[in-house]
Amino acid sequence: MLLFDLVKQEWLKSVRSSGFYKNLTVRIFLGVFALYMGGILLFMGYSLNKVLEEVPGGTPMELFNGAMLYLLLTGLALRFVMQQLNTVNLSSYQVLPVNRSVLIHFLLLKPLFSPANYLLLLVVVPFAVRSVAAYYSGGVALRFVVAFELMVWCNSLLASFLKRRFGSGFLSFILVLVAIAAVFVLEYLHLFSLFAVSKALFLFVVLHPAGLLVPVAAVVVAFLLNRWFFAQNFYPERFNSKLKTSHTATADLSFLNRFGIIGELISLQLKLILRHKRTRTLLFLSVLFLLYGLLFYTSNHYGDGMVFFCAMFVTGILMFLYGQWVISWDSSHFDGILTKNIPTRTYILANYYLLLAFNGICFILTTPYFLFGTKIIYMHLTAFLFNSGCNIVFFLFCATFNSKRIDLSQSSAMNYQGTTYKSFLIVLPIMFFPILWVNVLAWLTSLTVALWSLAIMGLAGLLFRKQLINLCIRQFNNRKYVIAQGFRERE
Amino acid sequence: MIQVSNLQKAYNGVTVLDIPELNIPKGESFGLVGNNGAGKTTFFRLILDLIEANAGEVLIEGKKVARSESWKPFTGSFLDEGFLIDFLTPGEYFKFVGKLYNKSDGDIALFLESMEEFFNGEINGSKKLIRDFSKGNQKKIGIAAALISEPQILILDEPFTALDPSSQIRLKRLLNDLQTNRNMTMLISSHDLNHVTEVCNRIVVLEKGLVVKDIATGEDTLKELETYFAV
Predict the structure, then answer these.
(1) Which residues of B touch A332 (CB under 8 A)?
(2) Domains of chain B from N-terminus onward
(3) What is the pLDDT of residue A453?
(4) Predicted confidence (pLDDT) per residue in A431-464, tens digit
(5) Is B101 in the A-facing interface, judged by CB distances under 8 Å?
(6) Which residues contact B103 (CB under 8 A, 6 or more apart)?
């Protein structure tokens, strides 16, 4: 019963948090997005059968089973980054006569109620109906779905164990990635086939009457591992949220000192990025998004507008992810920025050069895409110019409308705190204007004209950057009282 | 040094501060007392151009503060933790602030050495980030950062709260020193009537945004204040 009370109080906590009411618009946007994603997943599940039927090497279910361990491994890696460690506000319960094991069970089982764990059922259920029930029987299909969900649970429990045991540092993540890459390479070189192992294992699970015992055992083992961990680390503060010490990333940024106060401000921003989990996740995400081009450039299905959008996205990903909240990143020390001897121009210029540097870095990192042909080269160059000339200024200007405090101390990977409908409004034109422009101009005249026109806009933006920055400074000065007021309000 | 004329600030139609006229000459140590909501922090924020006045203005050395930057090089301030950059170590933070005021590494090291007693050996050289320090030590870091530029004007909001008794006494000594040796203009708000009468030579009492008392500190000041605030 106590467990039930805890669940209820957690629910009340989320419903009564002020963010729940304030962020209704964000919630609606996210809701629409979730529906859209759900639709896509359902469609994937439905059409997966047809795709797999064309692949040699077995029935669709056999192929799926072969890929199962890969899916689970990848899932584990993703969870390692994304999944939050569950904590209850322990100190308020510790003083009450609550049994420790109840708290532990609550901590352990709570993630299993997260909707994220059931998302993939949207793919698996239609797949089971079309590919498993059709080839075997309804009973087998049911076992297939149950086995899959059990493995997801096992993954979730395993991820929290690994995370608690080894920490969620960047290094451990790299280790996980290396391990997975190693398995892929072995498979590719035909030295060791995880695919065959996976196929045999899950066919047994699904087809043999006692097969379901395997995933059940896996869940139990994962659960016991977690229990063991808590037994080892008896004192609650050991597992209550993060250990209190924050580690200092001491990258040597002294080379920036030559650039005076602007250099100091830029190195401050870099420290900010390196020392908070949320911003470090953005860095990591941008590395992933750099690979986005592989999806778009290898296929002929996409129109020029979409391909250019992708070019803009990959050449400016750091700027997009970081620039969306430029200025807001400083919300926790904004009063300090305003009262210390930092001229507004210097502050805005520092942010401008930082975003420009991000653009340069991404452009250089994406040069391997040049191998995909001259069209891509032109597109990347245009995108780089347009991002640098127009979008940076656009971000800096619009940033002044976002006066919501960002609390970087709330660390988590998927953290949308500080997001308002304004953030969406800022991103929309940046996302859709170039697609529209390229498509319309390419249709009216030619792709060359479309790209040149955007490149010229970008160049103009760079040439007139002084005037544009002055505009941003004036805007900042007009809005600074409102921003500062907003940043002072904690949620 | 600081002139306030006809200054008014209202939130949602409710006036929270209304000061028709107030002058703070150079070298004065100005104490601000008043109960919660009296408008002390609002007044300091207006002086520091952190909020916009509904009417009137603040002048520092004859120049308007609002939307200007001329006062920043010689004004040091610490109101709350919003002034701290909490993901830096104290050393990095002092260096950052020092550079903003064109201090060399040597100047900064010398300054930090002079603050060693006030820091009680817990801050200099620490590898901890500011956000991991206790509230008291955070306050010390903020006050030191306000002083690093050797400002002519120092504005502190409740500097004594959260400090341990010894640190309170050290801070008092430090502030008195700065006043006699450097002739620094100081604006200090406090809930502690004892401390503020010891440090300041002029005390202003705010109530609901209005100046109700303006006293030159003398022997009877503490008594006068205590009777005023007695309930």
Answers:
(1) 82, 86
(2) 2-83+151-229 (3.40.50.300)
(3) 93
(4) 788 888 998 998 898 889 999 999 999 999 999 9
(5) yes
(6) B111, B148, B149
